[in-house]
């Protein structure tokens, strides 16, 4: 089991129908232990779990193996339970559209959370320049976020049918009057403020200690440490939720959050300038009133572990409407050929034949090369692990899985990340 504990356990409503989803956020060392001169990470990843009716949830061992690796690679990592899984409310849908919207909801929350962390409006910045005068704050942060959207098994099926990141951001703008969107963004700002405050206190405490040697290496967050819980598995029923939310919003949200929201609202009504998150394809989604001023670019990458291909992917849905949904969103595989993508699968996967996966990967590789044209080579990568089954329990295969992931991050993501620093 993972040696990392989530920093935050919380709930947000799904954009699909306000079904309450259980979520977690894990921090890497750069956010767990504030240090002078240490740069806050601008990398985030979201990993989705296997099919809920078959026992899938965010505690899945393969999901947690991926989470551990990404934390160690300096990612802020999000996980969640789809509707009907573990403590999330609702039930698994027949069409898959609801699960796709669940994923979009959590992805939006994670993006805005990371973005809020880098804005001085929510509190004093933690990153300080050691060569600057004592006490000065370095607010010069990179203007981009590196995002990995990933999934294992059924989770990867949902990832392959996500809209482009620009469309995900646009959803939050186009539905800005929605109570659901407001709740998601409020929760993102709420926990960002909590993180900012905790790190500020750490810096102040460390500053008062003399001759304290700097800590080195990755500081794993022990599972014995307490997570901060907002909402959680004891969430009220949908019928009670509205009245409970009114109480929570008046009692839970610190005065600083209310003040920040007031300032953001005042700014939005007195200035013609609009803030935005911008995807790497150049399109933008203007922010709503609870967002802070920002305009980072989002560089999206995709991670697929043991993905499902037809006929098993179709067998997981049973209605005519589901077939129409998957056909309609088939064009979204463009995401995988236009953005850096890693696919890892085993030769002994009981759900998808190795031969079929080989053929599909070669097709995607060719499409990726075609998409970039003469400007470069394909950004679609895949790793076939000999002897690995769908559940990655065979001897030695988990090590190959993690090694492939780390190699991809170092060669593809780290390279792209350094180009935009």
Automatic annotation (TrEMBL):
Q: Where is the composition biased (Low complexity)?
A: 269-287
Q: Which residues form a coiled coil?
A: none
Q: Taxonomically, which superkingdom?
A: Eukaryota
Renumbered to this chain, region (Disordered) spans 205-242, 260-287
What protein name applies here?
A: Alpha/beta-hydrolase
- Tell me what organism the protein belongs to: Aureobasidium pullulans
């Amino acid at each position: 089991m993972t040696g990392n504990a989530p920093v935050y356990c919380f709930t947000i409503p799904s954009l699909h129908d306000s079904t309450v989803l259980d979520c977690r956020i894990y921090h890497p060392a750069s956010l767990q232990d504030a240090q002078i001169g240490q740069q806050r990470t601008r990398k985030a990843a979201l990993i989705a779990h296997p099919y809920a009716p078959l026992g899938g949830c965010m505690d899945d061992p393969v999901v947690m193996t991926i989470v551990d690796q990404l934390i160690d690679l300096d990612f802020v990592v999000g996980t969640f339970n789809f509707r009907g899984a573990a403590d999330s409310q609702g039930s698994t849908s027949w069409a898959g559209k609801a699960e796709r919207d669940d994923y979009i909801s959590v992805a939006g929350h994670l993006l805005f959370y990371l973005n809020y962390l880098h804005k001085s409006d929510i509190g004093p910045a933690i990153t300080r320049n050691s060569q600057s005068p004592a006490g000065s704050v370095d607010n010069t942060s990179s203007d981009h976020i590196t995002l990995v959207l990933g999934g294992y098994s059924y989770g990867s099926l949902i990832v392959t049918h996500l809209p482009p990141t620009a469309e995900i951001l646009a959803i939050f703008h186009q539905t800005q009057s929605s109570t659901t969107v407001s709740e998601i963004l409020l929760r993102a700002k709420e926990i960002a403020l909590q993180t900012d405050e905790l790190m500020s206190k750490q810096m102040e405490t460390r500053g008062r200690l003399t001759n304290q040697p700097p800590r080195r290496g990755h500081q794993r967050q022990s599972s014995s440490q307490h997570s901060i819980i907002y909402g959680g598995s004891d969430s009220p029923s949908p019928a009670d939720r509205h009245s409970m939310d009114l109480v929570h919003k008046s009692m839970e949200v610190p005065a600083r959050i209310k003040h920040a929201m007031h300032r953001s609202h005042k700014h939005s009504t007195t200035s013609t300038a609009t803030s935005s998150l911008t995807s790497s394809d150049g399109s933008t989604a203007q922010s709503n009133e609870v967002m802070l001023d920002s305009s980072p670019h989002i560089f999206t990458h995709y991670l697929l572990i043991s993905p499902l291909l037809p006929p098993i992917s179709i067998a997981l849905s049973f209605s005519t409407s589901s077939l129409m949904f998957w056909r309609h969103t088939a064009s979204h595989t463009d995401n995988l050929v236009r953005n850096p993508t890693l696919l890892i699968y085993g030769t002994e996967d009981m759900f998808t034949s190795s031969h079929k996966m080989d053929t599909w990967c070669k097709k995607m590789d060719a499409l990726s090369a075609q998409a970039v044209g003469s400007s470069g080579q394909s950004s679609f990568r895949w790793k076939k692990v000999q002897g690995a089954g769908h559940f990655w329990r065979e001897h030695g295969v988990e090590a190959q899985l993690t090694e492939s992931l780390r190699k991809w991050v170092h060669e593809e993501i780290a390279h792209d990340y350094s180009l935009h620093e």
